[in-house]
Amino acid sequence: MSNHDHTATAHHEEHHETMGAKKIWSVFFVLLALTALEFLIALGFVHHWQIIEKGMFVNTIYILLTLLKAYYIVAFFMHLKFEKSSFIVCSSIVFIFIAYFIVLMLVEGNFLSGALQSHAIYPNN
Predict the structure, then answer these.
(1) What are the angstrom distances between the C-alpha of 48 and each of 4, 22, 42, 53, 116?
(2) φ/ψ (deg, to 5) at 45
(3) What is the CA radius of gyration of the chain?
(4) Which of 81, 104, 118, 124 supports an S-S bond with 75, CB 3.0-4.6 Å?
(5) Looking at residues 42-70, what average pLDDT do you find?
(6) What is the structure's pLDDT at 2?
(7) Does residue 55 have a pLDDT over 60?
(8) What pLDDT is recorded for position 74?
(9) Backbone phi, then psi, for 22, in 5-degree steps?
(10) Mean pLDDT of 106-114
(11) Residue 104: band (very low, low, confident or very high) from pLDDT cuts 50, 70, 90
């Protein structure tokens, strides 16, 4: 019985990556590079050199880079990458619904701001 437990533990340790100092530094440098790229786009390309205009394209780049940084933070520093896939799917579904409801509220709020009529506060004056 103890041999089986030892074999199962050794097998589990083979497949389980650990966050050693080397991995932490590599993730740090990836996050540093992504942040430097965001600053280069914002301060260099958009404001200083004016190669790219502010708008939907730049906002989309910022959102994608931010989501990539969020993935690295959640996956490695919160150790979600090392969890079982069922837990990852359950957590992801919750965040997808939260994002969906935020988008729905923004769309509804935009509709209501244009659909509601403004009335005078004192109509008899």
Answers:
(1) 65, 36, 9, 11, 41
(2) -70, -35
(3) 24
(4) 81
(5) 91
(6) 53
(7) yes
(8) 87
(9) -65, -45
(10) 84
(11) very high
Q: Residues 6 or more apart from 38 whose CB is under 8 A from it? A: 62, 65, 66
The answer to whether the CB of 81 falls within 8 A of the CB of 75 is yes
- Copy the structure tokens of residue 2: 């103890």
Crossing angle of helices 56-72 and 21-39, in 10° steps, is 170
> Going along 50-97, which residue ranges are E strands?
none
Using CA atoms of 48, 49, 55, 56 in order, give the dihedral in degrees to the nearest 10. -120
CB 61 within 8 A of CB 41: yes
Q: Is pLDDT at 7 greater than 60 in this prediction?
A: no
Tell me which amino acid residue 11 is: H
Residues in the chain: 125
The helix (H) or strand (E) run that includes residue 111 is helix 85-115
To which residue do tokens 């740090």 refer? Answer: 28
Tokens of 114: 């244009």
